[in-house]
Amino acid sequence: MAVSVLSRLRQLRTSGPHDDVGARTQALVVHGNEFGFDPFGLSRQSLEAAMTVARLVYRYYFRAECHGIENLPASGRVVLVSNHSGQLPFDALVIGSACFLEPPQPRLVRAMVEFFVPTVPFASYLFARWGQITGTPENCRRLLAADEAVLVFPEGARGISKPFSKRYQLADFGSGFMRLALEAGAPIVPVAVIGAEEQAPAMNAKILAKLFGVPSFPIVPYPPFVAAVPLPVKYRVYFGEPMRFTGDPDDDDDDLAERVKTVKNRIESMIHMGLRGRKHVFW
Amino acid sequence: MSSGEPTKTAVITGISGRLGRIVARRLHHAVGWRIVGLDRRPMPGRPKDIEHHEVDLRSKKAREIFRANQVDALIHLGVMHDPRARPAELYSWNITGTAKLLEYCQTYHVPKVVLLSSANVYGPRPDNPQFLTEDAPLLAAQRFPAMRDLVEIDHLVSTFLWRAREIDTVVLRPTHIVGPVHNAPSNYLRIERPPVLLGFDPMVQLVHALDVAEAIMLALAPGRRGIYNVVGPGEVPLSAVLHELGRAPRWIPHPLAKSVLGLAFRLGFSSFPVAELDFIRYVCMIDGRRAAAELGYRPRFGLRETISAAQEVP
Fold first, then answer.
1. What's the pLDDT tens digit per position in B135-173?
2. How many CB atoms lie within 10 A of CB B296?
3. Are B235 and B204 in contact (CB under 8 A)?
């Protein structure tokens, strides 16, 4: 066992392609003004610093494996829809890094973040500098109109805070992403993330959640007992073929449900495929 | 207009304020307008051909001005926002005053009403979309009761827009106005070492006072009615504005800032109520596409020019 861990570590030192983060940042399409900020507060400079760190996490900590990146359109509006898990949004980091590092032409993915993020010091503005946006429909609409790539987690907080016992079981999907994709005429790229579920195997302490007035209070069975640092699991990320839908974006939820279900089923089957192909959680 | 004789009359409330003077000067340069000022304060140094009445909006004398003159437009700038004034007096001045003005306009057939409201009526909130359109709800008063008057005036005039169909009513909601004016954002930007909240750096918009005057001119054109956001030349983080102005911000954690600022306000060291901290914490930015499409409004001052205008001393 110890020998195998050592050999794995040795492998780590040598593996990993050379990524030119600076050149990739320059290749991104950013609608910045003379101060270097786009209307949502993205700055190329902050993004480059963030991607330098994100790359290390992506390549060496999670040793992420990326499949099907050719399914991500090189340009034009697109909605990425993914499963969400792991207590901390490292799945967003991995998807974002994959789209930035893997394709020939890097793409900036703008994740729709929870409304509480703007109330958290530092996260409030750093997320914006890195291109992440508050998850309102108006923001999504505006970005799709500007031909950007938007990442949506339709499970939202239900997904990320799910306990370990519910791993790889998708929570309910909202239908907002479908409305926005129909309205903008944007293709949907289904994304399945394998690994995030094990990065912080948590159970939900309902009493503490009530005490602190938060939707869930996940605790993990190792110090510091809150999900502050993820375990070094191996991430696998699968990009599915773009799906195109037609119809009236103002339809009832019931009418949209079938199309939402199609996307959910696709992600589910991609998850199952990924789980079958996986030999070990950590490598 | 060969003789240059004024043919139309505009009543400007709040003309003695800094912004009032800027708007009056702009209108004075435009050919064909006779200007009648309406303010409780005197207006020293005004040009001879600007008429000025030191009256209360709610008084009989104010009504008399509308009765005696054939008024072609009302430009309502006289909205009072003084966090130190007695709330009852403020309410009466703002709401009753505005309601009276609208009544005079209807009675004496004034064809045009322009209200200068503010984008602050939307309120800075963590769940705000990055750009608020004119249809967004006015939620400022929820976290910030002192804004209730401004929200209510906006509602009052917006309702009037639909109620009095024969009058072309325009409600302008400009973002933070900078330039040689007195208001909370430009006072804040003039502080040498302004307090900022540790870990917060929202994107902000600024608009030059002269661009606002220009928007009012565009709103005066016959046939134009509706509610319009008035934007500046772009969006930048608050920290970039302060850096551009050469300010040295003091970083203060939010809970501490709340108690310190609350104390400073009560003791009279600061003119900023605690709730205004949200303006340097969350986004409250507006979408100006409607004004661009329907009024033809474009800010003439660039981003750097507008930011440096915040240094101008009134």
1. 999 998 888 777 888 999 999 999 999 999 999 999 999
2. 10
3. yes
Three-state SS at A142? helix
B28 contact partners, CB below 8 Å, separation of at least 6: B35, B47, B49, B50
Contact across the interface for B127 and A134, Cβ inside 8 Å: yes
Nearest to A125 among B133, B200, B234 (CB): B200
Q: B205 is written with which tokens? A: 């918009």
Residue B142, number of CB atoms within 10 A of its CB: 13
Side-chain half-sphere exposure of B194, counting CA atoms within 13 A = 22
pLDDT in tens, A106-154: 999 999 998 888 999 999 999 999 999 999 999 999 999 999 999 999 9
**Does ipTM exceed 0.85?**
yes
Domains of chain B in sequence order: 8-181+206-232+285-300 (3.40.50.720)
- Pairwise CA distance, residues A169 & A197, whole Å: 10
Flag if A133 and B236 touch (Cβ within 8 Å): no
Q: Which residues of B touch A37 (CB under 8 A)?
A: 203, 235-237, 240
Cα A97 to Cα A43, A146, B80, B120, B199: the distances in Å are 17, 21, 51, 37, 24
Q: How far is B255 from chain A (nearest CA, A)?
A: 11
DSSP code of residue A242? P
CB A128 within 8 A of CB A41: yes
Write the pLDDT tens digit of every residue in B83-117: 778 888 888 889 999 999 999 999 999 999 999 99
Q: Do A81 and A152 form a contact (C-beta atoms < 8 A)?
A: yes
Q: Are A237 and A194 in contact, with CB atoms under 8 Å apart?
A: yes
Domains in chain A and their CATH numbers?
A: 19-277 (3.40.1130.10)
- Structure-block tokens of residue A21: 């983060």
What per-residue confidence (pLDDT) applies to B1?
Answer: 40
Residues of B in contact with A33 (CB under 8 A): 234-236, 303
A167-176, B235-244, B266-275: the lowest-pLDDT one: B266-275
What's at A205, amino acid-wise? A
Q: Which residues of B touch A128 (CB under 8 A)?
A: 203
Strands A78-82 and A188-194, by their bridges, are parallel
Which two three-digit tokens encode residue B10? 């505009």
Q: Is B44 on the interface with A (CB under 8 A)?
A: no
**Looking at the complex, does the CB of residue B243 fall below 8 Å from at least one CB of chain A?**
no
Best of A134, A141, A180 to substitute, by most chain B Cβ atoms within 10 angstroms, is A134
Phi, psi angles (nearest 5°) of residue B154: -60, -45
Percent of residues, chain B, with pLDDT higher than 90? 77
